[in-house]
Amino acid sequence: MANIIRQKITDVPDRIPTAEDIQLGQLAINTHDGKMFFKRDRNGDVSIVQVGLEDAADNVYYVSKNGRDINMGNTIADAWGTLEHAVANVPRGATIFLKTGDYTIQNPIVVPEDVSIIGDNLRTTIIRPANKTSDILYVSNGSYIHDLTFKDHEAPGAAIAFNPDDSAGPINASPYIQNCTSMTTTGTGLRIDGSDANGTKSMVVDAYTQYNQGGIGIHILNKGYAQLVSVFTICCDVAILCETGGFCSVTNSNSSFGNYGLKADGVSDLLYSGTLVEQQDLNQFKIKDLVKKPVIGNAISINGSNTYFTVASASELSIGETTEEDPVFANESAVKQVARATVLGAKNKIQIDTIDFINETYPEFDYNNFKCTRDLGFILDAVIDDMVFGTNYKTVTAGLAYYRATANTVIDEQLTETVAAINFAKDQAVEVILTETEKTTVGENFGIITDIISGGANTAPEIIYPDPTGALNTTSAAADTLQLNKDFLTDEAIAYIAEFYPSLSYDETLCRRDVGFIVDALTYDILYGGNSQTIVAANAYWNGGVFQLSMSEKQATIDTYGHLRSLIFNVLANAAIPSGLLYNTTTPQDTSIGVFSSDEGTKGEQLFDIIIELLSNGFTSIITTEEAARTSSEYSADATFDFYQFSLISSSSHTFEYVGSGTNINTALPNQGGVPVAENQVIQINGGQVYYTSTDEKGDFSIGEDLLIDRSTGTITGTTFDRSLFAVLTPYILALED
Hints:
Elements: E1 4-8, E2 27-32, E3 36-40, E4 46-50, E5 60-63, H1 83-89, E6 95-98, E7 101-105, E8 109-110, E9 116-119, E10 125-129, E11 137-138, E12 144-146, E13 149-151, E14 158-161, E15 170-171, E16 176-184, E17 188-193, E18 198-199, E19 202-212, E20 216-221, E21 225-234, E22 238-243, E23 247-251, E24 254-256, E25 260-265, E26 272-281, E27 284-290, E28 299-302, E29 308-314, E30 318-319, E31 322-323, H2 334-361, H3 369-389, H4 393-400, H5 408-413, H6 415-432, H7 436-455, H8 473-484, H9 486-500, H10 508-528, H11 532-539, E32 542-543, E33 546-547, H12 551-572, H13 598-617, E34 619-625, E35 640-644, E36 648-657, H14 665-668, E37 682-685, E38 689-695, E39 701-703, E40 707-710, E41 715-718, E42 722-724, H15 725-737
Parallel strand pairs: 1-2, 5-6, 6-9, 7-10, 8-11, 9-12, 10-13, 11-14, 12-16, 13-16, 14-17, 15-18, 16-19, 17-20, 19-21, 20-22, 21-23, 21-24, 22-25, 23-36, 24-36, 25-37, 36-38
Antiparallel strand pairs: 2-3, 3-4, 26-27, 26-35, 27-34, 28-29, 28-35, 29-34, 30-31, 32-33, 38-39, 39-40, 40-41, 41-42
Helix pairs in contact: 2-3, 2-6, 3-4, 3-7, 4-7, 6-7, 8-10, 9-10, 9-12, 10-11, 11-13, 12-13
């Protein structure tokens, strides 16, 4: 399609521009006083067009049945003729007004980001597909569709969907469909396939009528998500269908006629797994081998069963019996602690504002906003913690993290946007700090991170470990000794692997780097307290929940750290290690400091225990399920717990009218003999779940499957009681009369 170029002419031209004045392949528009236009058509001819530009508005375009694609499109009088031409030529953020008419389009067509398509009204503005079994519109981040009726699409086509080629990109502003109608036979009104988008993978719907006789109203799958308000489905085979982990919330909606109402089928692909340590109660389990804290509402399959249990709660992650402990900030100056607390209090706002900054400054930028938000949190924690202690350890580590695993995508493809985002977050963080010294320190720490990202890992400054307030001489000496023996411990690790795993194929350079990270983390935790950085360093062996070493490398790594554990007490005690325990002949142990305390030696062993436990068994959590998993015998240790996302529909104030009476409106109506099937209102199969409150065509009110208020008999029935409503209320009425 041709691109539009506007050029304001300050002086009246003395001639009509020739084709050579206008770039080849472009439709050029030159304006003078908002009324005179020179235009090159598709044949290369240039002509003068007189249009009253006082009717034109910036970024607003029109399509009408009597329009032409060679027109300018920015007034009704000069409207384009096809929607295909419009979406291909408008800039981001434009509004396209589709005037009254019946349009057959060459589908599918992609609606660009932040572009709105608004019809005159849904009764008179109709879109039909030339390719009936293909989708009609592919929406993108920030798309808005309003007052349109879609007709004639057939299975497997949908009126509105995400583009399967992932052009929808990361969704942070959900496409919004408002006051539209899908009127067809077997087609789908709206498909939200989470595998076709990133980010929230979501759409928002308000007042979208689905009159799809034999089709699907709303179809959500593959962890797609929707918020649905006032969705009315008529004669659909399935009114709202969630499967493979799709989920939605539904408010004030209606399912009339058709075969099935709300249907949830199955669960998502496997998210992560764990192993049972012990069953502590009928619905309480201690699980190891986890890479993340289980999410409330996730589905659990035990030993591959098709029966799923629901996570009601999960304890914070621990490593064996050890929980994460933060550094000790309490001894530091009140001014620094206040500055840290102030930034932490603003942390959520800074993250949100930074994401908004990225989206507004780089509208074409394709990135994962969830990971970006997470990384911003890590960076904020790093720079303010280092400000308190005066170290740069966490700051340097945060910068170097961009050169580990798959994070190098940032360096290779997203450098400009990443640095700009970090600088924006810096400005926000510094602004909320009230004291100048702390402002300066935090700003400098941010600068370390951006310098590392921009200049490479080799530009990282040397890590410094100043003593915290009130540090014992023995603690300070232990930290210094550990740094003096960093090369010794690294060479000893490599020598141990050579001795006991001579045929192991591994990357020695990465191994040396990782051992160095572990030594630095131990130094931090010994000096500043807690165990948090040892846990972070050991957890780096996972990426995206996947262990990064092969099974042979894993065991070799565990054994190597076990060997270093056997040496660490003597290292921290400045005591010579017996030569019979060493395999390294290149770098000697440094015992020059000579200050000894068994407390630091013991803590060093404990920190290595954490590393070994984490590598061996991952994280541990105690999980409570909503349901009792067993009523008699317990599951045996080492049972496999697989975690999934339920296909889930959560609906309030839903109306079911003659659901089950069929997809042909001429036979489904009650006056034509249509018979509802109550069992078809809600379908939950293969682990899918539907939470709902509803009324039906008889006026009966339900709260899920467990409570029914029968209008005609005045009774309440459920799984735990069956009692007359009148009998329950009468004693209270009598009591009030007394």
